[in-house]
């Protein structure tokens, strides 16, 4: 459709003359301005790029990387569309595996393939066809920017040439054969596969919780920090690690406790190079004769094999950190009465003579009372040895260069929420009252609600993580990072309590219950979702809220699609630790030019199995929401920006043609 010409009066143009004069410096002639309009109009009429949404990865780097490589099944779907019945299923499977893991697959092919040169030529032709398909949504300029430097010219020729055109077939085929002849096929294939992966995902949305119990959060962060187009909505586990880097000692203790509980020393020691020896030495000295059975690490899902002696040391370290955490949290509660968390200073509530604690009127025995560093008269006071240990841990986290790099990436690409193309993304909750209004939450002496609350928290996090910033309220911001992890009014948590102490030391399961905030039930109502969407400036029709945080227990019949499709909860158990509860291995959401697809994934065994046996993640589409017409770039938020630029350039052309601004020829 040709855009309608808009008539601008001279009076209208004169009102914007200063701006148009500035614009003329970039577009000094009608020819240059017209060329840019043509370019922008063409871009707006390309199909919308494919967006991928993931959440609650929890350090499971192998599954995460595989989902990125296969683009939630997009690559497999493209291969099926292109080759259909022309290739056997085994051939399509092998091609997909090559695209996902080119270096590793090539090594296997060389061991098995009798005529390697023929395989190279056939495979290169197939890869070019796949690359053409995934690049078709982009301008040549955008594709060219993504091309590997060494093969840029050759790939351009292959993408825009044709082996079926009689005028070009010899030229095209000679390029392929020469790649093989010069022994550059391996390098070329690897770069082509990476390019296909790159073009299959236009933008990536991570809706929180990169960190937690899985072994490779640092590997995931390395991937995200170098990804071409990513945004991150912080989750409570991300903010916990950010708080540890900021220097909040209670957050540091929580990070260590979770890592030790799940035997995840890889992230601490290998990922970030944190020296755990002082903690291990302190723990072995202090708890050498203690019963540590309840602190034994949960290592069923850990690849690393520990000896019995190593498991005992980890359990001792785990107990030592638990005690540190409960002491430091008690100190935080006392320091900040405004948090309203007096009931979470658990060590102060223990009857140390009886070994019991009173909760909700019930006197309950503790499973462990052997705490040699706890002074019953002042339970939260650190011993001199503990103070020295905490100081070491504090320095280890706050001065860690790799963690600093990752936190800077989280700050640069991250926020509490984001709205893009009609989708409002935030990790957990918007605090609500029982009757469905936005709950007022006090943050550092001021009251906020709704979008203003998330905006304020965003600035608190940015302030806390700036080590060298001379900001008056930085210390208070650092303390608030711990509240964001476990505070009842935190949008990243929004539960009555975090029952860590109870789960460790009290057998009564009723005390483990964490009452969820009103959002988790009220947001299943379309009217409430509409209210939230309007609060964040999104249209009610066609918009969605996308959350994670609460695993969807598919095994119990729970559905990730809420509020008549207005809200999508895509935490389905990426973390192996949650898969027994959910029955699946996570959801990913794909939003392409045709509409939405919510994809449910089965557990991913390993990259090794994927490479050697061609095992892909088994995925099932649980929601298809197709548009009446194909969405173009014009229909996106970026399209609105481009349309505004076209409008400005139209005005500049009119100013040139009426002599209001002279062309610089």
Which characteristics define this entry?
665 residues; 49% helix; seven-stranded mixed beta sheet; 17 strands; five-stranded mixed beta sheet; alpha/beta
Output the number of helix runs.
Answer: 28
| Strand residue percentage | 5-15%
Major sheet strand order: 7-3-2-1-15-16-17
Radius of gyration: 29 Å
Low-confidence stretches: none
Helical percentage: 40-55%
Secondary structure: number of strands? 17
Name the average pLDDT: 90
Give me the secondary-structure category: alpha/beta
- What characterizes the major β-sheet? 7 strands, mixed
Q: Name the overall outline.
A: globular
Distance between the termini: 32 Å
Please give a quick description of this structure.
Helix content is about 50%, strand content about 10%. It starts with 9 loop residues before the first helix and ends in an 8-residue tail after the last helix. The mean pLDDT is about 90.
Set out the fold topology.
Blueprint: H1 10-15, H2 17-26, H3 30-44, E1 51-54, H4 61-70, H5 74-83, H6 89-100, H7 102-112, H8 116-135, H9 140-146, H10 152-160, H11 169-181, H12 185-200, E2 203-206, H13 217-225, E3 230-233, H14 236-246, H15 249-261, H16 265-271, H17 277-286, H18 308-335, E4 350-351, E5 356-359, E6 362-365, H19 384-398, H20 401-413, E7 414-415, E8 417-420, E9 423-426, E10 441-443, E11 446-448, H21 450-464, H22 474-486, H23 500-505, H24 519-522, H25 526-535, E12 544-547, E13 561-562, E14 567-569, H26 579-582, E15 587-592, E16 595-601, H27 607-613, E17 619-626, H28 637-657
Parallel strand pairs: 1-2, 2-3, 3-7, 9-12, 12-14
Antiparallel strand pairs: 1-15, 4-5, 5-6, 8-9, 10-11, 13-14, 15-16, 16-17
């Amino acid at each position: 459709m040709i855009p309608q010409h808009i008539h601008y009066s001279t009076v209208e143009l004169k009102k914007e003359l200063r701006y148009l004069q500035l614009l003329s410096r970039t577009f000094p002639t009608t020819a240059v301005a017209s060329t840019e309009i043509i370019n922008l109009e063409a871009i707006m009429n390309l199909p919308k790029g494919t967006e991928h949404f993931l959440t609650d990865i929890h350090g499971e780097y192998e599954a995460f990387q595989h989902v990125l490589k296969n683009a939630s099944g997009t690559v497999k779907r493209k291969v099926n569309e292109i080759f259909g019945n022309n290739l056997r299923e085994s051939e399509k499977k092998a091609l997909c595996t090559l695209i996902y893991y080119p270096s590793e697959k090539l090594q296997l092919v060389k061991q098995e393939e009798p005529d390697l040169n023929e395989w190279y030529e056939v495979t290169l032709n197939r890869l070019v066809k796949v690359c053409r398909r995934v690049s078709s949504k982009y301008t040549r300029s955008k594709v060219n920017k993504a091309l590997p430097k060494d093969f840029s010219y050759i790939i351009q020729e292959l993408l825009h040439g044709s082996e079926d055109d009689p005028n070009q077939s010899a030229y095209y085929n000679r390029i392929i054969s020469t790649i093989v002849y010069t022994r550059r096929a391996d390098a070329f294939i690897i770069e082509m596969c990476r390019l296909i992966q790159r073009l299959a995902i236009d933008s990536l949305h991570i809706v929180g919780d990169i960190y937690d119990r899985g072994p490779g959060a640092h590997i995931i962060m390395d991937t995200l920090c170098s990804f071409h187009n990513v945004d991150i909505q912080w989750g409570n586990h991300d903010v916990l690690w950010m708080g540890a880097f900021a220097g909040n000692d209670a957050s540091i203790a929580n990070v260590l406790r979770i890592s030790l509980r799940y035997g995840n020393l890889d992230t601490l020691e290998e990922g970030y190079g944190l020296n755990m020896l002082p903690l291990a030495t302190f723990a072995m000295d202090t708890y050498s004769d203690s019963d540590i059975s309840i602190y034994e690490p949960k290592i069923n899902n850990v690849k690393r094999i520990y000896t019995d002696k190593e498991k005992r040391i980890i359990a001792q370290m785990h107990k030592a950190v638990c005690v540190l955490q409960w002491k430091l949290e008690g100190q935080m509660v006392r320091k900040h009465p405004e948090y309203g968390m007096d009931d979470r200073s658990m060590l102060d509530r223990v009857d140390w003579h009886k070994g019991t604690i009173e909760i909700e009127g019930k006197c309950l025995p503790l499973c462990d009372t052997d705490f040699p560093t706890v002074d019953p008269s002042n339970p939260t006071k650190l011993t001199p040895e503990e103070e020295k240990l905490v100081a070491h841990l504090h320095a280890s986290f706050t001065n860690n260069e790799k963690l600093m790099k990752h936190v800077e990436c989280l700050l640069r690409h991250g926020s509490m929420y984001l709205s893009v193309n009609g989708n409002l993304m935030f990790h957990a909750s918007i605090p609500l009252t029982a009757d469905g209004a936005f709950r007022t939450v006090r943050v550092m002496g001021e009251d906020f609600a709704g979008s203003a609350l998330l905006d304020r928290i965003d600035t608190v996090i940015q302030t806390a993580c700036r080590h060298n910033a001379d900001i008056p309220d930085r210390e208070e911001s650092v303390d608030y990072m711990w509240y964001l992890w476990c505070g009842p009014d935190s949008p990243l948590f929004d539960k009555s309590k975090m029952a860590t102490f109870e789960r460790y030391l009290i057998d009564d399961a009723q005390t483990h219950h964490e009452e969820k905030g009103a959002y988790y039930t009220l947001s299943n109502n379309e009217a409430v979702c509409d209210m939230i969407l309007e609060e964040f400036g999104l249209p009610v029709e066609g918009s969605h809220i996308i959350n994670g945080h609460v695993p969807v227990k598919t095994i119990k019949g729970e559905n990730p699609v809420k509020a008549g499709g207005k809200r999508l909860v895509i935490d389905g158990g990426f973390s192996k630790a949650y898969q027994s509860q959910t029955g699946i291995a996570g959801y990913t959401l794909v939003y392409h030019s045709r509409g939405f697809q919510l994809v449910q994934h089965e557990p991913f065994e390993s990259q090794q199995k994927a490479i050697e046996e061609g095992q892909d993640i088994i995925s099932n589409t649980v929601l298809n929401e197709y548009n009446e017409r194909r969405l173009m770039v014009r229909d996106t938020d970026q399209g609105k920006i481009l349309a505004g630029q076209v409008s400005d350039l139209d005005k500049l052309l009119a100013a040139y043609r009426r002599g209001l601004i002279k062309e610089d020829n």
